[in-house]
Design brief:
binds molybdenum atom, Sulfite Oxidase, Chain A, domain 2, binds ligand MTE, Oxidoreductase molybdopterin binding protein, OxRdtase_Mopterin-bd_sf, 29% strand, OxRdtase_Mopterin-bd_dom, 199 residues
């Protein structure tokens, strides 16, 4: 007798992709920016990690390019309810960037050129879950999608994936970012539908 798992049949699956609750699939790539697209030249670009004790670690563009990169293909989920399956990126894992950073901090506040911020627990940046990406679909990352480089943290709602990333501040206590301080969820897990504070 065939044993069929109810869970398997009860879920909408498309080539292994799954939609979190309340989301719909889009095949386009919407642009969502809270302000103007900042112009950052590669000569001036730098990425800074600042620890809870004030120690700074910096990478310029050449130094970022010299680090080993990965090519994650991931599904992304925006809190405005679109999801996009199978997006292809190239960038440096945060495991590589944070490897030699001495810190015991649990929280991170990610900062962008143009002053956008978002808060993420440090553990959600580690173990292959987050990248600083500089290429999308085999091309340089377009400025409207966060080029020269953006954070990619696909297991959280896409507002956590800060475009035009310029640094990460490590903190002992959580500080809220741009959307979190106006009511969006501190963590933002799409699978638990954590859209707003209190969800
Ligand atoms: N710096 C910055 N990063 C940002 C945003 C922003 O307004 N500024 N918007 C966020 C939101 S709400 C989403 S859904 C994604 C959108 O990325 P996209 O424009 O490449 O689709 O970027 C996130 N990162
Ligand atoms: Mo979003």
């Amino acid at each position: 007798m065939a044993v069929i798992s109810r869970g398997f049949h009860g879920r909408a699956r498309d080539k292994g992709h799954e939609l979190p609750p309340g989301q719909y699939e889009t095949t386009g790539f919407p642009v969502l920016s809270a302000g103007p697209t900042p112009a950052v030249s590669l000569d001036d670009w730098e990425f800074t990690v600042r620890t809870e004790t004030g120690v700074r670690y910096r990478w310029n563009w050449q130094e970022l390019m010299a680090l080993p990169s990965e090519t994650p293909t991931v599904d992304i989920h925006c809190v405005t309810k679109w999801s996009k399956f199978g997006t292809r990126w190239q960038g440096v894992s945060l495991d590589v960037l944070l490897e030699n950073v001495e810190s015991g901090a649990e929280y991170a506040l990610v900062r962008s050129y143009g002053d956008y911020t978002t808060n993420i627990p440090v553990e959600d940046l580690l173990d292959g879950k987050a990248w600083i990406v500089h290429r999308y679909d085999d091309e340089e990352l377009p400025a409207e999608h966060g080029g020269p480089a953006r954070l990619l943290v696909p297991h959280l709602y896409f507002w956590k994936s800060a475009k035009w990333v310029r640094g990460i501040q490590l903190l002992d206590e959580e500080e809220r970012g741009f959307w979190e301080s106006v009511g969006y969820h501190d963590y933002g897990d799409p699978w638990r539908e954590q859209r707003y504070q209190g969800d």
